[in-house]
Amino acid sequence: MSDSFTPDKRERFRKLLTLASESPYDGERTAALEAAKRLASSLGMDLEEAARACRQDSFEDDPVEQRAREDREADARTRRANQAWMWRTYAAYAYDAAASRMRQQRREEIQKQQEAEEQQRRTERLWRAGNHRSSTRQRPRKDFARALIRETALPLSEIAEITGLSMRNIVELKLKMRPHATAAGE
Fold first, then answer.
1. What are the residue ranges of helices labelled H in the chain?
2. Could you say which DSSP state residue 43 is in?
3. What is the model's pLDDT at position 186?
4. Which pLDDT tens digit goes with each residue over 141-163?
């Protein structure tokens, strides 16, 4: 059937369909569509079959158009592949960054925990050094407080809590432990 669809008839059919779809006037669009239907029926086809045959014949007859279509399809496949690669790369980067942040946070938590445990061990060691159960002599609380002030970075409130001394006594000890500066005039 498409054998009788000559290049002239195909071109006329294409122009009628273009006019039917793009004309700003209703009457012109209707007339062009009716003319396309008449042309298709004269070839023994309905409108859709004629449009498919026209499209198929135009691609088969025009190697430049066929090559251009193949190039467009190849470009589209390449773009889709590049987009997929880009999203996979972005997802992998985001996952790695999140995992790295989590590892860093965990390292910091472990370090803080170890520092706190070390501080606790140091405090216990100092306390035990002054308070042996086997010893009848106990280390005086003020001596223990002086050792804590000198050898640890504990806040004064914690030293007061550990030793059982008042905050006033702890501050007094700390002030007395300061090296005496000689006056500039002496």
1. 7-22, 26-42, 47-61, 63-130, 141-151, 156-163, 167-177
2. T
3. 45
4. 888 899 899 888 889 998 998 88
